Amino acid sequence: MVISKQQTLNRDKQLNILERKYIVLTQQGLPLCAKPYHSLAEQLAITVEQVLKMTNDLLDRGIIRRIAAVPNHYKIGYLFNGMTTWDIADDKAVAFGEKVGDLSFVSHCYLRPRHLPLWNYNLFAMIHAKDELQLKKYQAQIKLLLDEVLQHHQGKSHDVLTSTKILKKTGLRLKSKQSKEEVSNV
Asked: In this structure, are 129 and 107 located in the same domain?
C-alpha cells in the first residue's frame, strides 16, 4: 500500500486523547508557576519526561509551531503602542536596524521592502509605553539614533502607526467541533 504525502500529513496532524488534553490545558498558555511542565504532568497524570517528550513530538509534527513568552502588554500596563516606521538609507538599514532592535523599549524590529511611491518606509520597530508622552519620547530616541541615515522623501522620514484595537492575539486553538481530531495553527 502506498501512502500519499497528504495522508501522511493528515495522520501526523491527528491527536490522541492525551495530546488533546495537553493542548486544551495549554492553549491559553503554560501554567504560570515555577515549574509549568511539572504542573502539566500532574494534571495529565503522567511524568514530566512524558510531557516533555509529547511537547517535542507535537513540535516535530507541526501541531505546535513554537513555544514562546507572549505577554499581553495591555494587562501589564503598557496601554500605548505604536509601530514606528522609518525611511532608512538601504545601505545602512541592517546596521541601524540592529541598533534600534537593541533598545530596551523595542519589542521587535525588522526590515521590509518599500512600496514606492506610496510607502517609502523600510525599517519597522514596535514600541510599547505606559502613556502617550512616553511613547513620543521613545519615538524621539529612535529618531535621534537614526538621524544621520534618515532619508526624506517628500519631506517625511518616519511615522508611527498606533494601536487602537487588538484584532487577534491567540496561539494554538482546537477547532470547535469536538468530534474532529483537527487543530488550527494560528
From this structure: yes
